[in-house]
Amino acid sequence: MIGMTSGRFAEPREVAALVLLLASGAAPSVRGADLVIDGGALKAI
Predict the structure, then answer these.
(1) pLDDT tens digits for range 14-28
(2) Residue 38 and residue 40: Cα distance in Å, rounded?
(3) Is 28 helix (H, G, I), strand (E, B) or coil?
(4) Dist. CA 28–CA 2, nearest whole Å
(5) How far, in Å, are 17, 19, 31, 40 from residue 13 at the CA level?
(6) What is the DSSP letter of 23?
(7) pTM metric for this prediction
(8) Contact at 8 Å (CB) between 27 and 10?
């Protein structure tokens, strides 16, 4: 993907890992945040 900083889209397991982190007790201070998992595509726009 041209312009994407990682050059690829996120794998489903990578998205799942973030979901698990946020659902666990390991991220108690994360509230009301927009977390974009797009390989840097948004930055390229």
Answers:
(1) 899 999 999 998 988
(2) 5
(3) coil
(4) 36
(5) 6, 10, 22, 17
(6) H
(7) 0.64
(8) no
